[in-house]
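Here's what a typical entry looks like (Reticulocalbin-3):
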Amino acid sequence: MVYKCVLSFLLITPYILHCTTAAVHSHNIDTIERESDGSYRARDYDHYTDAGHNLEFDHEAILGSVKEAEEYDKLSPEESQRRLAKLLPKMDLNGDQYIDRKELKKWILNSFAKLSREEAQERLLEADENSDGLVTWAEYLHDTFGANDDEEVAPDDTGDTGMLVREEKKMWALADKNGDEMLDLEEFEVFSNPEEHEAMQPFLVSQTIRERDHNSDGRIDFKEYLGDRAASHDKAWLVSEQDKFSHELDLDGDGALDEDEVRRWIIPDNDEIAEEEVEHLFASADDDHDELLSFPEVLSHQHVFVGSEATDYGDHLLGDRFDDEL
């Protein structure tokens, strides 16, 4: 009976069927930033998962806020579309009622910057024990490790950035531009998302080389690149990593990664990620293939750009009730 009822409901309201690829917004801003190979996690790390395409990334790339994306998930389709319509003129920089690829890319890159600030602000609020808008190293240690000073932290403990604490302390000092031994929001954002700030990237490269360069030649060979990971993987994985190292990372083919190659390896390229997201959104919504997104095209594919109550309900309807009945 449930199966028939679901089909009947979907026939009456096809919009919900159209939006069943979304999920309840579940983004977590406290995810560890470093991958197992030592590279920093890219903005789109969960855009495509084992379960398929994740619309949450698309919504955040448009809205520039996890909180706002969650709010959209609770809106009616009509209200969600009304709010999206108000955003479109802001995305349309030349005012021609169309959004071209350059305009969309600029918007997405700005969204990435806003997401970085939102993440830092949320994390700062957690660590700022006296609510003065600043975080001291002591407050950070206490919030992250429950420690009162450096002596209470184990040498192999890692903080929010995935680095050893002694490395984090060096990066803290680098992020503290005014040298007052406290980080305001702007400085804390640089500390908590160093890979997204060019001024911090030389430190990240040097830190990676210090961490992995066991023969002290200033470069990272394949064995050093693998590190301890090889012990827990099979031969097929090893062959795959060798291919990646040789053909994607070691650009000059000399058998080791220099500073520039390490940078390309560990630092995600937000510009490239934004390009890929533009390509994805155009493929999803440019119905007449004119290389422009008209406002009606965006609004008719609203589920790709933002969420709504119907998006989530449709997902529950098919995901849960179909599974139960079948």
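The two ends are 12 Å apart (CA to CA).

More examples are in the samples folder.
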